[in-house]
Amino acid sequence: MASLPALSARDICFGYADDDVLHSVDLEVQPGEVVALAGSNGSGKSTLIEILAGVRVPRRGGVRRDGDLALVVQRPAAPDSLPVTASDVVRMGTWKHGARATRADARRATQRALERVGMSELAARPLAELSGGQRQRVFLAQGIVREPDILLLDEAAAGLDRESAARMQLILREEAARGVAVCTVTHDDAAVALADRVVRLERGRLI
Ligand SMILES: Nc1ncnc2c1ncn2[C@@H]1O[C@H](COP(=O)(O)OP(=O)(O)OP(=O)(O)O)[C@@H](O)[C@H]1O
């Protein structure tokens, strides 16, 4: 029997003011599947990811999510005044686990997530003192530490060097192997090659 999709979007229509951006988009992502969302600049990828994540509400249509969701967006900057370390940022990802038993558990999960993204050595460094690519990896760690059922990423590999980008692709495959439904916006050919399925948006329509 086919499994139910972890994420199912039906007839999604959306616009900013008078500008229609998405036109009746249908998209399903199965547990364990990596879907790459490709398309030219301005085709509506980020908007669609935000609707899938529940950050934006569509004008028409709806999204069904089966399980917990983590969204990793591109965060090029961090205010210098923000008094948080890389480790703090990742630890925040564990907060959804009201049931996560102990602080020790949260600390271990945080360390493990930082290791997976190759950021253990910079765990104590303030976020504002990390490079763009390092921050990107920290926010990926924050997403995976939640142990989500659905992982959405908006150009999370942008600005990563080749080694970090490859590591990220590996992490996405590992997440999928444990049953996570992954949908990633990308312009990167390597990410597209690693996906189980590529869907392409053009002018707000899936083609
Ligand atoms: N906050 C906003 N207000 C008004 N229009 C917006 C807003 N955000 C995006 N748009 C417009 O919506 C359209 C789709 O933008 P979106 O960011 O979803 O595209 P994208 O495919 O992710 O582009 P890119 O590859 O450049 O990141 C574009 O025409 C853009 O100008």
Please, could you describe this protein's structure?
The chain is α/β, with parallel strands linked by helices and 207 residues long. The chain has two domains: 1-67 and 149-206, P-loop containing nucleotide triphosphate hydrolases (Rossmann fold, 3-Layer(aba) Sandwich); 76-147, no CATH class. Helices cover 32% and strands 27% of the residues. The protein has helices at residues 45-53, 86-92, 103-116, 132-145, 162-177, 189-194; strands at residues 7-16, 19-29, 34-39, 60-65, 69-72, 150-154, 181-185, 197-202, 205-206. Strand 6, helix 5 (162-177) and strand 7 form a beta-alpha-beta unit. The protein binds adenosine-5'-triphosphate.
Summarize, please.
By secondary structure, the chain is α/β, with parallel strands linked by helices.
Task: Looking at this protein, list some descriptive labels.
single chain; 9 strands; alpha/beta; globular; binds adenosine-5'-triphosphate; Rossmann fold; three-stranded antiparallel beta sheet; 207 residues; six-stranded mixed beta sheet
* Low-pLDDT residue intervals, each spanning 5 or more residues: none
Major sheet: arrangement of strands: 5-6-7-3-8-9
Beginning-to-end CA distance, first to last residue: 28 Å
Please provide the count of β strands: 9
Largest sheet data: 6 strands, mixed
Structural class: alpha/beta
Shape: globular
* Count of separate DSSP helical elements: 6
Helical coverage, percent range = 25-40%
InterPro entries: AAA+_ATPase (IPR003593), ABC_transporter-like_ATP-bd (IPR003439), ABC_transporter-like_CS (IPR017871), Metal_Ion_Import_ABC (IPR050153), P-loop_NTPase (IPR027417)
Family: Belongs to the ABC transporter superfamily.
GO molecular function, one term: ATP binding
Keywords: ATP-binding, Nucleotide-binding, Transport
